[in-house]
Amino acid sequence: MTTIHVFDPALCCSTGVCGVEADQALITFAADVDWAKKNGAQIERFNLAQQPTAFADNATVKGFLERSGQEALPLILVNGDIALAGRYPSRAELARWAGVKEAAETAQGSCCGGKTSCC
Amino acid sequence: MKFLDSAPRFLFFTGKGGVGKTSLACATAIQLAEAGRRVLLVSTDPASNVGQVFGVSIGNKITPISDVPRLFALEIDPEAAAQAYRDRIVGPVRGKLPETVVKGIEEQLSGACTTEIAAFDEFTALLTDSQIASAYDHVVFDTAPTGHTIRLLQLPVAWSGFLEAGKGDASCLGPLAGLEKQRAQYNAAVQALADGRRSRLILVARAQNSALREAARTHGELAAIGLTQQFLIVNGLLPETEATLDPLAKAIYGREQAALAAMPDELRALSRDDVPLKPFNLVGLAALRQLLVETAPQPDAAAGESVALRAPSLSDLIDDIAAEGHGLVMLMGKGGVGKTTLAAAVAVELARRGLPVHLTTSDPAAHLTETLHGSMAHLTVSRIDPHGETERYRQEVLRTKGAHLDAQGRALLDEDLRSPCTEEIAVFQAFSRVIREAGEKFVVMDTAPTGHTLLLLDATGAYHREVARMLDAKGAHYTTPMMQLQDPKRTKVLLVTLAETTPVLEAANLQADLRRAGIEPWAWVINNSVAAARPRAPLLRKRAQNELAEVEKVATVHARRYAAVPLLEEEPVGVERLLKLADHDP
C-alpha cells in the first residue's frame, strides 16, 4: 500500500481559512486529500506549527528543511521518497501515486486535471 | 447575602468591566476563609488586579495571602500560559531544526488564538485537578468563562471526533490540535460546570439598563452550557437617603430604581442581593471586609467637602480632532467604561460642526445606533455584527474559493469555516473596509469590550506582516491597516476610563499593549466623573474626592492630553443629551 506524507508549512489550519486571506491552493488540496482518502488512499498531513517533531524526526524532511528552508514547503513524500516540493499536488497526481481510479471525478473536480501546474 | 448561603465548591463571578466583580470575589473569598474554609481565589482576567487589592504580588502561581489565613490566590496570565504552550511544542525541536524554522513556528503560535486556548486549558485544569480538589474547600473565580471560551466547549462534532482519535488530518482546529490529550479534561470541566452542587454563577451588574441586559445575555449563554445555578448581585446602588440631598443624586437614584423595575424577566427570576454604594475605595482588607456587611445609612449629611475639578472638556479634544478634516477616531477601553456613549458623543459633536462622520461599533450591546439612526445631518451609523460578519465571510469563501469543489469538498470547507478563528478574520475584514473610508471623512469607531481590541490588533499585525513580505519583495508601495493605525495623522486613539483605581490601571495596561503594537494613544477620556459633576450629596462628594487622585494620575503620569466628562443627571441617550457630554464647563 502506498503511503503519502504531506509536510505542510506552519499553518493555523490545513484549509487556511484561519489565515488572513483564505488560500485557494490549501482549500483545493484539503478537498482533494479528503476525496483521495475516501477512495482508499493513505495520506497523512503534518503541520510544522503543530507537529514540529514529525519534521525533526524524519531525516529526509529535516535535511530538506536545512537545505531549502521552510519557504520551500510543502514537501510530499511517497513511500518515504521525495515526490514533490514547493507546491501541493493535484488530485490527478494524488490519484496516480495512490493508485486510485479518478474516473468521472475529473470532470467536476479541480481545475488541474492531468499534469498541468495551474494550481 | 443570599449568594453566600451554603456556597458550593466553585463560585464564578462574572459581569461587565467596572461593575465590581473583583471586589466582590475578593470579599467573598475573605469571608469564606474567615469562616474557616480553605479558599483559592483565581483571576482569569488578563489585566488582573487581585494582587493590587491585597497589596501582594501574585502572578501565575498559587500564592498565600498572608493577612488572611487559609486564603490563597492565583492570577492566570494568558500570555504566560501561551508561552508555556509554545515551549511545550517548540522545546523538543529546538536545536534539531534550523533556528529560522523554529522562529517561524513560534511566530505562527503567537496569535490570539493560541493565547486564548492556553488560558482556557489552565482554567479547565483548575476545575478538574484532584490536588486542587483536596487542598481547597472553595475555588472562587473572578470572571467566568464567557464568549470565546464557551465556543470552545461547543466544538463541532467532527472536531470532537478528531480530538478523541488523538490524531489525523488536522481539520481547522488551529492550536487546539496540539491539545488533543486535554479532551477528557474538557469533558470533565463541562460536567463540573453543569453540576449545581459543585458550581454557582454570580452575575454582577450595576443598576443600569445596558449592564442588566448584558447580564441577561450571559445568563442565557451560560445556562445553555449547563451552568444553571445562578445568582444576581446588583452592586453600587445609591441609597435612598442620598436622593433627597441634591438633584444629581436624586436623578441617579431614580435612574437606578427605574432600571431595576425594567429588569429582564430571566434576571428577575434569580435570587438577588443588592450591595449599596460605599463612600470608600474597595482596596485593602479593611474596605473589603466592609463590602458584604449590611451597614446602616452612610455618614452624616454635613460630611464631604465640595469638589471643583478643573479639567479639559471633550469639546476641547474635538477641536483638535476636527482640525484634520478627516481621519479615524478609535475609542478603546475595558467594558463598562462607556466607550459606545463617548464614541457617539464624539460623532454627533463632529457632525454638529458640519463635518462628514461615519459612526460604527462592533459592540453587540450597542444600542445607540438605533437611537441615532438617520436623526442627524452629516452622520451615518453602522454596526459590525460579529455573527453577521462571520456568516458573510463563510458565504463569501464558499462562493469564491469553494466554487470549483464538489459537494464533499464543500462540506469539508464548510466545517472548517466553523473554526474558532474565523470570527476574528471576519471582523478584521469588516474593520479594514470601514477604516479605508477615513481618507475622506471621519470614521468614529467604538471597539467591543475586553480582549477583543487586542485580537483585532493581532489580526491587523498578522495581515501587515503578510502583505509586507509579499510587497517588499516586489518593491511595491502599500499601506496596510496597521500602518494606518500607527500614523497619528490618520488615527487618533482615545482611551476611555473611569476615575477609579482599577479602570485607570486597566487603561494604563491597555496603553502599554498599544505601544507595543506601535500605536500611541492620542488622548485619555475620563468618563462619568462625579467630581466633574460637582455633587452636593455627601456620599457623592466623598466619591468625588476619591476621584481627584486618579484624575491627577491620568493628567500627569499616563496621558499626553485628556478630558473629563461629567456624570449626567440623565442617561446620555439621543443626540441632544449626547451633545451635552461634549459641553464646555457647564
UniProtKB/TrEMBL annotation, chain A:
Matches recorded under InterPro entries: Arsenical-R_ArsD
Tree of life domain: Bacteria
One Pfam family per UniProt: ArsD
Protein name: Arsenic resistance operon repressor
Protein's organism: Methylocystis iwaonis
Automatic annotation (TrEMBL), chain B:
SUPFAM superfamilies, sorted: P-loop containing nucleoside triphosphate hydrolases
Coiled coil: none
Catalytic function, reaction form: arsenite(in) + ATP + H2O = arsenite(out) + ADP + phosphate + H(+)
The UniProt record lists the keyword Disulfide bond: no
InterPro entries (UniProt xref): AAA+_ATPase, Ars_ATPase, ArsA/GET3_ATPase-like, ATPase_ArsA/GET3, P-loop_NTPase
Gene3D superfamilies per the UniProt record, alphabetical: P-loop containing nucleotide triphosphate hydrolases
Keywords, ordered alphabetically: Arsenical resistance, ATP-binding, Nucleotide-binding, Translocase
EC numbers, comma separated: 7.3.2.7
Enzyme superclass (EC): translocase
Function, in words: Anion-transporting ATPase.
Name listed for the protein in its UniProt record: Arsenical pump-driving ATPase
Organism: Methylocystis iwaonis
